[in-house]
Write a sequence for this structure.
């Protein structure tokens, strides 16, 4: 439901805020469409890449999802400041997208909580491990960062209990 | 494995004339959510003057746990029973990330 509503909405409006609002309304209306009314929710990140300027500009719109990490070419790392509600539970939702200039060397890492909630033994260390992997490779390319994250996932093995999705986007110039 | 994980979560009930308090500890996830769900159902049968879900000792919560807590808030609202949810740091952090506002002690 979410995937196809999102794709349909994105074809009809260029506004990420509007797209997410439409998906939220669709989820809340799922009873009307005869779908199960077990109150489900989801989180997602929607990003638009504008290539028309000198430097590409990435607009990140976050619906309750884990904050994407932005790795700048100077080695600094920041969490996306985009704000927004999760989808499917609340009739009133708001979203505040954040823009990032994807200048040469900048890398953006999108991921799911299956990664950050991974455990080693009894301890949930996925979040910390993830930041360590990023810190070690903060001036690396998108491919190097992805390799680091994949190695981390393999090392955690059974500690990764939920499904994981990772998307790393970089500007190689 | 599921049974071991579920054993990590506990709910105990403490009742006073003013409120019924569900004191949770451990990890609230898919394997343990039914424990809290059942405890809330039992609490709503009693129709307390106020329900408190004390999650200050909950070290981890996943999306299914969030759903149970949120459903509990809605169920109480439907019966006009004031509810407060007291989050631990990780619980509060996840609800903040989701931008889902919990009814705190002050509001109820």
């Amino acid at each position: 439901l979410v995937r196809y509503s999102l794709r349909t909405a994105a074809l009809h409006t260029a506004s990420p805020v509007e797209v997410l609002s439409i998906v939220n309304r669709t989820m809340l209306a799922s009873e009307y469409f005869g779908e199960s009314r077990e109150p489900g929710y989801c989180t997602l990140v929607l990003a638009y890449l504008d290539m028309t300027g000198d430097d590409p500009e990435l607009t990140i719109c976050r619906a309750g999802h884990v904050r994407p990490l932005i790795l700048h070419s100077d080695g600094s790392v920041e969490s996306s400041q985009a704000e927004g509600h999760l989808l499917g539970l609340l009739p009133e939702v708001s979203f505040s997208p954040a823009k990032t200039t994807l200048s040469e060397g900048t890398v953006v890492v999108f991921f799911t909580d299956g990664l950050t909630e991974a455990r080693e033994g009894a301890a949930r260390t996925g979040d910390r491990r993830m930041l360590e992997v990023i810190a070690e490779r903060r001036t690396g390319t998108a491919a190097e960062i992805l390799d680091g994250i994949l190695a981390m996932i393999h090392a955690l093995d059974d500690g990764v209990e939920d499904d994981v999705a990772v998307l790393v986007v970089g500007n190689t110039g | 494995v599921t049974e071991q994980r579920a054993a990590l979560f506990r709910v105990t009930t403490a009742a006073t004339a003013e409120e019924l308090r569900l004191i949770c500890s451990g990890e609230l996830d898919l394997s343990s959510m039914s424990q809290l769900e059942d405890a809330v159902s039992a609490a709503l049968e009693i129709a307390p003057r106020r329900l408190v879900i004390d999650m200050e000792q909950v070290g981890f919560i996943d999306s299914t746990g969030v759903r149970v807590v949120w459903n509990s808030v809605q169920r109480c609202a439907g019966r006009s029973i004031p509810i407060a949810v007291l989050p631990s740091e990780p619980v509060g952090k996840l609800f903040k990330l989701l931008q889902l506002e919990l009814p705190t002690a002050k509001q109820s």
